[in-house]
Amino acid sequence: MSGYRNSCKRAAVAAVLSMCAAAAQAEDLFNGRDFQGWELLAGKDMPPEGAFTILAGGIIASSGQPSGFLATTGSYRNYRLHVEWRWSGNPGNSGVLLHISPGPMDRIWPLSLQVQTKHGNAGDLLPMAGYAFAEPPTSAPGAQPMVKAHAAPDSEAPAGEWNSADIVSRDGVVDVSINGVPQNRVTHAKPDNGRIGFQLEGAPYELRNVQLEKFD
Questions:
Q1: CA within 20 to 30 Å of 13's CA: 21, 42, 143, 216, which one?
Q2: In this predicted model, what pLDDT tens digit does every residue of 60-93 receive, in sequence order?
Q3: pTM, whole model, 2 decimals?
Q4: Three-state SS at 173
């Protein structure tokens, strides 16, 4: 029996160490002080501070204006991205942009894969400006924008409460969970790498704990 207990203890310690190692590898994409490593692309010559404010505790508050997006200056391929957001006013529309790449634009939106955080549609996937993946959209033929709707029942928290999105991108496969519920998956995503961004679409919102863990 003592051998079994020791085995369980070793397994528990190994699990804790594994979780600690994963946490140690995660990178905070916002440093909590300024917007180093980010740029605002909104059709106007303005710094990120023109649309975003850093609050106590490292919370990033977005005014939702002007229309455009905040993007990392660095590019990423295989990773796990954790994002927490909430609506600070009336719930509205926004999204996380993955694999932002040079190429055509859809009005103000870049070639990218949008993970929808729009109230009531969290977890939908939208291929922007010619982005592609293998699965067919769930939107009507010819509809714009094309949408691959989230698969499970809506798992978004009530307006004003914090939500979490966990996004895993690996070799062209993208998995999305909202508040711990698997909601979407696409394969053969192209491009499969690029910058990461957050949309501004008129509604103010807040971000926190934006963390990225790179895979080898």
A1: 216
A2: 999 999 999 999 999 999 999 999 999 999 999 9
A3: 0.87
A4: strand
